[in-house]
Specification:
This protein is of the alpha/beta class and 206 residues long. The chain has 6 helices and 7 strands, in the order E-E-E-H-H-E-H-H-E-E-H-E-H.
């Protein structure tokens, strides 16, 4: 892939963190993306690093955030998205350390009450997580319903715990122990489709 000054990945910097390798890109003046490694791999892993001043400062501030000494980022950012997405990301950027907002509250505040799917999509499409803190969005009962960064929900759990934000996590319950029928000796089989469906059912929220 050839570098192009018009693309947001002209400048790249990677830095280690407690949640995995972080990859930041810049257009030369702003942060344009932040990716958290998924299974150890970042999106532009084949491209060489090319740091600049704003990326170096971002890495420094991120290190301070993970150390617990920084609660707010002071960085120029330029996320690319639709007007609706930008309105959602702007509101996300105002949620402070240790605070959270529900999807419903977020929808009301950006003028989309009841549009859960659209709100969830915009939150999940956030191109600069951590700096735009989409991890601070939870269901109304504080459940974690998903996270698109890093390794998903475990990454979000780490971030919420780091900031002391209470939460609940959806989990598929452990498969029941296979039971042998006393009369016939037959062993009941686990229905895998039922287990997969259970992940989305609210009664499995802890």
């Amino acid at each position: 892939m050839t570098e192009n000054a018009s693309t947001p990945s002209e400048y790249i910097l990677r830095t280690a963190s407690p949640i995995g390798l972080l990859e930041l890109t810049s257009d030369g003046e702003h942060i344009t993306s932040l990716s958290i490694a998924r299974q150890g791999v970042v999106p532009l892993h084949e491209m060489p690093e090319r740091p600049n001043a704003v990326l170096t400062e971002a890495a420094k501030q991120l290190s301070e955030y993970f150390a617990g000494t920084r609660h707010d980022f002071e960085l120029p950012i330029a996320p690319q998205g639709t007007p609706f997405q930008l309105s959602v990301w702007h509101r996300l950027g105002t949620i402070g350390w240790g605070e959270f907002l529900s999807y419903g509250e977020l929808g009301n505040e950006v003028g989309k009450p009841g549009a859960a799917r659209a709100i969830g999509g915009a939150v999940g499409a956030n191109p600069i997580p951590l700096i735009i803190p989409c991890h601070r969005i939870l269901a109304g009962d504080r459940r974690i319903t998903g996270y698109s960064g890093g390794d998903g929900i475990p990454t979000k759990v780490w971030l919420l715990d780091h900031e002391g934000i209470g939460h609940k996590t959806n989990r598929i319950p452990a498969p029941p122990v296979a039971q042998r029928d006393a009369a016939t000796g037959a062993v009941a089989l686990i229905d895998l489709e039922t287990l997969v469906d259970a992940e989305a059912r609210p009664e499995y929220a802890l």
